[in-house]
Amino acid sequence: MQSRESTPPPAVAGEPSSQSARRKPRDGFRTRHRAASHRSAHADPPPPPEPSLHHPLVPRGIEPLIIDQAHLDQMLAALRSAGSFAYDSEFIGESSYHPRLCLIQVATTQHIWLIDSLADINLHPFWELLADPSVEKLVHAGEQDLEPVVRHLGRAARNILDSQIAAGFAGMAYPCALSKLVLELTGVKLGKGLTFTDWSQRPLSTVQLRYAADDVRYLPALSSLICARMSNPDYERWARSESEAMGDPSRFQFNPDVDYLRIRGAGNLPPQQLAVLRELAIWREKAAEHADAPPRAFLKDDVLLALARSPVKSSNQFARIRGLPRPVEGEHGDTIIALTAKGLSADIDHLPPKPAEPSPTQRFEAEAFTAAFQSIVAGRAIDPNLIASRQEIGEFYRCLSGDSDPSDLKIMRSWRREAIGDELIALFKEGKLYEMNWTGGLKVLPKSP
């Protein structure tokens, strides 16, 4: 993995001015949990050397751990030659602003490689391969695994198929754990999970290496089996479109106009307090990055919300803010007060208006419309959660019932519009008819008037 720039970024308002304030936040529970899991992985007996499933798309054995550039380059050549490979990574995300990458796993139908990303090797060619649209990458719940491509190259990974997403188009639940999909489709029960093991510790045990290998071992076969179950030729195309969207750079970049609204409770704030929350959220992101700490570990959401709900105008008012860390107060108190004043005097016309509370009748109708949406897409072997949440469908319904333009909503963009968006508009405006039956599963088809 490429090292961080050794030169700190330019100072910004509110950044820590001392080493003590830049110390990363402690997370005792997670640290102890990782340490215990790591000890367990070294104490457990090694698993059987070969997978129990004999399948032409399931590789057997693991290549030696890659710790030098020459072997990495050989692996990259093999992956390009194969034209498709499975990819996963192990990282620790609670102790730094960017997740610390500790191990990379890749597999073709013939080989499995594990890359020690903490070794002195240049991973830039690997990120370039992930961004190469001519080579297919198979992942499972892989959004965070694609983040380093954006961070190191400034562009997205390409030609991605996520088996978790694909399963949602094949009559299976979304989201769904890899182990459950592997068990249902191959009959193989994966070993004990090591999600919280300390992947940064060396050496890695045989149990850890086997666990890591199994995360990619079955992906080529799994992807093939899932796509074979799809009942519509468009579904694989939609699955690939949604999978590739996971790598969009905007998913990994802080958006000062949107992200503060995702803080729980933000929607209940009056406009002026919402402006304060926006200023504080922007500051927290910059300060956390400078301190190399996750933003929510640097300062929790509920503390940020409390600072916006009860604006602090002088240092003696910090005592009423529960959970505010003393180092943050000491180093950033003046900045918080200044940003609070800025938010309280800000023009609030650009802030999103608080939506009107729906009436009981409107709530019932929105729920009924949501139920219709869920029935239609489930009847076509697509998990409704893959397309839109209940909240998003409710927003879509309110837009239609208020005679507003829904074209900017998620359900009217990309493959979602083709899959169901236009059809839902027809249902609302024209009273489109459907026929429902249960023949080996729910079936919902359009019906002629």
Mind telling me which CATH architecture of the largest domain this is? Answer: 2-Layer Sandwich
Distance from first to last alpha carbon:
61 Å
Strand order of the largest sheet: 3-2-1-4-5
What is Rg? 25 Å
Number of strands: 7
Mean pLDDT: 90
The major sheet is characterized as: 5 strands, mixed
Report the β-strand fraction as a percent range.
5-15%
Description:
45% of the residues lie in helices and 8% in strands. It is an alpha/beta fold and 449 residues long. It folds into three domains: 44-252, Nucleotidyltransferase, domain 5 (2-Layer Sandwich); 259-344, DNA polymerase, domain 1 (Orthogonal Bundle), CATH 1.10.150; 360-446, DNA polymerase, domain 1 (Orthogonal Bundle), CATH 1.10.150. It has a five-stranded mixed beta sheet. A two-stranded antiparallel ribbon has the order 6-7. A hairpin with a 7-residue loop joins β1 and β2. α3 (124-130) packs across α4 and α10 (271-291) packs antiparallel against α12. The longest helix has 21 residues, at 271-291. The protein is flat, with a radius of gyration of 25 Å. The model is unreliable at 1-26 (pLDDT under 50).
